[in-house]
Design brief:
Helices cover 38% and strands 25% of the residues. The protein is α+β, with helices and mostly antiparallel strands. One of its GO terms (molecular function) is DNA binding.
Length: 119
C-alpha cells in the first residue's frame, strides 16, 4: 500500500477528514472529531497508528511480530503501530484501518452514529 492509497482509504469512510494538529507532516484522520488513524505519509518505513480492541491488539502483535507493535506515543492497550511496507498484505492493512474507524464510531454518541448512517 502506498502513502497515497493509505490516505485515500482513510478518507473513503463516511465523515472522515484529514487534519494536521501536531505538525504539517503528521496526518491525523478523524471521524466526528475523534482520531482513528495517525501517520506520517512520507516516513520510511510507512507506519500508521490504529485503534484496536485490546485483546485483538495483543494477538496481532504476537502474530505479526515486529510489523504490528504497541502504539507509538499512544495508549498501548488500545493502539497499535502498523508497518505498511509491503510485508503485511494490503487487505489486512485495510481491515485494520476499517476496524479502527468502526471502534471509534461505536464510541460516538448514538445521535452522531445515526447521522453517519444516513449520510
Amino acid at each position: 500500500m502506498t502513502p497515497e492509497e493509505l490516505r485515500s482509504f482513510c478518507l473513503s469512510f463516511n465523515a472522515a477528514v484529514e487534519e494536521f494538529p501536531f505538525r504539517p507532516e503528521i496526518s491525523v484522520f478523524k471521524v466526528r472529531g475523534k482520531l482513528f488513524a495517525l501517520t506520517t505519509l512520507d516516513a520510511r518505513p510507512l507506519t500508521v497508528n490504529l485503534k484496536s480492541d485490546p485483546e485483538d491488539a495483543v494477538r496481532l502483535r504476537s502474530e505479526y511480530d515486529g510489523l504490528i507493535v504497541p502504539g507509538y506515543h499512544m495508549n498501548k492497550r488500545h493502539w497499535n503501530t502498523v508497518t505498511v511496507d509491503g510485508e503485511l498484505p494490503d487487505h489486512l492493512v485495510r481491515e485494520l484501518i476499517e476496524d479502527s474507524y468502526d471502534l471509534v464510531v461505536a464510541g460516538l454518541p448514538r445521535a452522531e452514529r445515526l447521522r453517519l448512517d444516513r449520510a
